[in-house]
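Sample entry (477 residues):
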Amino acid sequence: MGIQGNKQTLTILYTNDIHSHFEMMSKVAALISREKTAAGDSAIVLDIGDHMDRASVETEGSMGQANVDVINLTGYDAITIGNNEGLTIPYDILESVYAGLLCPVVCCNIHETISGAPPSWMKQHVILEREGIRIGLTGATAAFAGFYQLLGWEAEDPVQAIAEQVEALQDKCDIVIVLSHLGLTIDKRLAETIEGIDVILGGHTHHILEEPLMIGNTAVCGAGKFGQYVGRIVMQRSHVEERFTCIEGSLLPVDKSVMEPIVEQAIMRHHELARERLTESVAVIDRSLPIHYEEESPFANLLAQAVLQHTGAELAIVNSGQLLGPLPEGEISSGMLHGLCPSPINPCVVKLLGEHIYQALEESLLQEFSSKKILGFGFRGYILGGLAVDGLSIHYDKQGEPYHKITDISIQGQPLDRQREYEVGTLDMFTFKIGYETLALGKDTVYMLPEFIRDLLRKELSRPGSLEETLISRWIS
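Predicted structure, serialized as tokens:
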């Protein structure tokens, strides 16, 4: 309860980085409902971002409406956005789906480029009240500034933005909570450098803190990912003049056998509707396109062609692991492309030295790279896969020594110059040093939003002659 004798108590329940794991959401809702009942009127429920993920059929088919409905039915009191909401859902659609949200979206480090103000659906802070306890909430999301600028937003330094909001809240509130989709490293910095934060609820790096990490008077928390846990923090004080302190903190494992029926029914309905919307036909092809992860294959070649056509670069380099299976003969639907290429990854253009291109291509011939498991940064595949290319030809010896297998590389008919810079069409994932790290050594990166690589595949399938081109060998043994 909120008042125990002379003591005031507040229970904070939170989730983070659910990433549209709809199979867990009704179970999460059931656990939250149980804990809210136990806490009475002195509980608040918060989400720390990346609730949405367009790798999910429900999110893709409803552009986030399915997530909003679940948030409403679960009874969240406030949420912040993660990079998946901010960078993968078009601005006008996000504004539309959040119009039906029954709780505030709290984020203080994002504003519109033109107006200089936060979007209409976003608040820099809010103050909630439970049993006479005034709870100040602010939040921030990872500042991928270059990406946000392309979408018409500016991403400010989150540490400075949070410091300003905490200062504004301190005299008005009994407890100050930060919803931080920034990662554990920055959460620690916030706790160390900003006075007045009582609780930091963290996400983005999917960290699991079974008990709060106490830094000074600040409880730093994190509940992992995918709805596996609900975080629970109990704050208490004995007198009105005292500061609230954390007296209990834990992660509650979500029981997969218990669900909230209303939430489950909503999810099932959204699943049906999403499947219907994604039946739109995008192409009809007269052959199947196989995919291989350790050698060249037509479907991976199609992806490389699609990136080269879209970017207009001199050559294109992509990884085959973006594709989760072969493209079958016959009618191709938007849902099929989504299922085979679910990653919310964008194309980009970088200037790369020939030496770095050569290094990445040599790595592609090694099983330790092609079979490497990759997590995060938009990648929703299973393994990295080898590199597929367009605009260049590679001769190599399978039996050669590692890093000395390639005997010749030509780009548009000319020998590769290791000291020259080339314009390379590739994937934004590589610029974050994921997978083939030498591809992150380029400069003058130009990110191309909002198109995902599955959108590029859709266009390439309609280009005359594209299927025949996939059969042209680029890797010659």
